[in-house]
Amino acid sequence: MNIGEVSKRSGLPAKTIRYYEDIGLIQPHRSDNGYRAFAESDLHKLAFLGRARALGFSIEDCRNLLTLYEDRSRASADVKQIAKTHLTRIDQKLAELQEMRATLAGLVSACAGDNRPDCPILADLSSHD
Amino acid sequence: MNIGEVSKRSGLPAKTIRYYEDIGLIQPHRSDNGYRAFAESDLHKLAFLGRARALGFSIEDCRNLLTLYEDRSRASADVKQIAKTHLTRIDQKLAELQEMRATLAGLVSACAGDNRPDCPILADLSSHD
DNA sequence: TCTTGACCTTCCATCTGATGGAACCTCTAT
DNA sequence: ATAGAGGTTCCATCAGATGGAAGGTCAAGA
């Protein structure tokens, strides 16, 4: 399978697939012409990567998950730990964003948004000293 | 004022302050010894930047906001537009994260997290083909 | 006066996670 | 033979800093 087909079937851009090979996440074989020759298992891993990345797992998380995925004797606790840690990070990020949103929404609704120069948004950003 | 004091008073690391000078957000004067000599107005701008960045505004947003901030004749509508656009981005990001969180939380709670190799998390990540 | 240590300088490398583009090779169909 | 659709490598770039090396400066104490 050439990179184009793998790209279509995995949903990942060819650039990204080459990048993932570069950083050692996959090791496709090479044909005589120098083209990457992907096996079904490579495609499978790439699809796995695509979904894990879409869930916000970092590349290093993905590397660990792939290792665990290929380790038939791993404990599910190891995987769960990675996922739980990630869930905590997501919750933190959510809390931050929600606070940001609240502050910003308040400022936006306080701002007349007309042609006058008075602007509560700038006033707020500059007033805390 | 040297960079150390500005760092303390603005809450920004010295590295970051140098970086902000580098990309043209501030233009502190220089003392005879080559040290950066910050005016109160520089400190003010840096604090402004710190707060805007904390609200998730991009550096380019900040550049625009600073320009508007210094333009006594700007319309508040210009500022509001930047803030509203940013608010929309935050809402998108929030929706994404919430979906991620829901999926991940479901997987985590489905996973026994014991010594057995069966793991719904990995099963899910690998099953969608 | 000398020295120590805190503080300052620049410059270059590194991080995450790709992505864009140039220059060039290969395969397939006409 | 040639066009064009693929493939290849390598190098640069994006955001937004941050780490570290090598070296200059300043103030205080022995």
Automatic annotation (TrEMBL), chains A, B:
<dbReference type="GO" id="GO:0045893">
    <property type="term" value="P:positive regulation of DNA-templated transcription"/>
</dbReference>
<dbReference type="Pfam" id="PF09278">
    <property type="entry name" value="MerR-DNA-bind"/>
</dbReference>
<dbReference type="GO" id="GO:0005507">
    <property type="term" value="F:copper ion binding"/>
</dbReference>
<dbReference type="InterPro" id="IPR000551">
    <property type="entry name" value="MerR-type_HTH_dom"/>
</dbReference>
<keyword id="KW-0238">DNA-binding</keyword>
<dbReference type="GO" id="GO:0003677">
    <property type="term" value="F:DNA binding"/>
</dbReference>
<dbReference type="InterPro" id="IPR011789">
    <property type="entry name" value="CueR"/>
</dbReference>
<dbReference type="GO" id="GO:0005737">
    <property type="term" value="C:cytoplasm"/>
</dbReference>
<dbReference type="InterPro" id="IPR047057">
    <property type="entry name" value="MerR_fam"/>
</dbReference>
<dbReference type="InterPro" id="IPR015358">
    <property type="entry name" value="Tscrpt_reg_MerR_DNA-bd"/>
</dbReference>
<keyword id="KW-0805">Transcription regulation</keyword>
<dbReference type="Pfam" id="PF00376">
    <property type="entry name" value="MerR"/>
</dbReference>
<protein>
    <submittedName>
        <fullName>Cu(I)-responsive transcriptional regulator</fullName>
    </submittedName>
</protein>
<dbReference type="GO" id="GO:0003700">
    <property type="term" value="F:DNA-binding transcription factor activity"/>
</dbReference>
<keyword id="KW-0963">Cytoplasm</keyword>
<dbReference type="InterPro" id="IPR009061">
    <property type="entry name" value="DNA-bd_dom_put_sf"/>
</dbReference>
<feature type="domain" description="HTH merR-type">
    <location>
        <begin position="1"/>
        <end position="68"/>
    </location>
</feature>
<keyword id="KW-0804">Transcription</keyword>
